[in-house]
Structure formats: structure tokens, C-alpha cells
Amino acid sequence: MNPFETIKVADAEKLIEASAPVILDCRDLKDYRAGHIDNAMHLHEQLKESLLMKGNKEHPVLIYCYYGHASEHLATQFCDFGFTHVYSLAGGYADWKECHSQTPST
User: Fold this and answer.
1) What does the pLDDT read at residue 23?
2) How many of the other CB atoms lie within 10 Å of CB of 100?
3) Residues 64/92, Cβ–Cβ less than 8 Å
4) Which of 45, 50, 85, 104 has the fewest other C-beta atoms within 10 Å?
5) Within 13 A of 54's CA, how many CA atoms are on the CB side?
6) How far is the C-alpha of 21 from the C-alpha of 4, rounded, in Å?
7) Distance of alpha carbon 40 from its chain centroid, rounded?
8) Which residues does the annotation mark as catalytic?
């Protein structure tokens, strides 16, 4: 069993609305710059190290990548450092983008 929780886009939206988590995008910088979840930070090594050592371990952390695999490894790492509310976005940014690119029918 994973020490973190894998959540779908709808649950991530609820988490963001209710808890204002730290949102970490672990994709490469080019893709982050091309589009990311609002308020997400690009997770580079220096930021990761700073958060792991000095971050509020009680504050929720939502991590996502391209399709939801790399974020699971990072979520485990955050849990290993004592973070208690860690979430990995199932389907990653691909699912997020798909859910947010649908236009309502008229």
C-alpha cells in the first residue's frame, strides 16, 4: 500500500478548493512553461530539496507529472521525509488537460 493517496482530477479540484495544497509539477521546464495547473510550481532539484528539508510537513502536497507515474515516486519520497498529506494526480497533466479542455455544448 502506498503511503500517499492517488487522486483523480475531480478529487484534485476539490483538494485545491478546500486546502490550497502546494502543487508541484515534476515535468520538464519546457512542458511546465507550455501549460500547468494554476499555482503549480515547477519542481526542480533545488526546490525539492528545500521543501523536503524545510517544508510544512502537515500542509497538503499535490504532485503531478505527465501521466501519473513519476509523481508516485516523488510522492513516496515526500512521505519518507515525513509529509503526512501527499497526493499524486492519477493520469497526470494529460488527464487534467483533457478534463479542462472540454468545451460545453450549446
Assistant:
1) 98
2) 11
3) yes
4) 104
5) 5
6) 14
7) 8
8) 65
DSSP characters over 4-73: SEEE-HHHHHHHHHHH--EEEE-S-HHHHHH---TT-EE--HHHHHHHHHHS-TTS-EEEE-SSSSHHHH
- At CA 105, angle to CA 103 and CA 106, rounded to 5? 125
**CA pair distance 83, 54, nearest whole angstrom:** 11
Task: Please report, as a single letter, which amino acid is at residue 37.
Answer: I
Average pLDDT, the chain: 94
Q: Grid coordinates 503549480 are at which residue?
A: 40
Please tell me the pTM assigned to this model: 0.93
Grid coordinates representing 6? 492517488
CA distance 64 to 7: 10
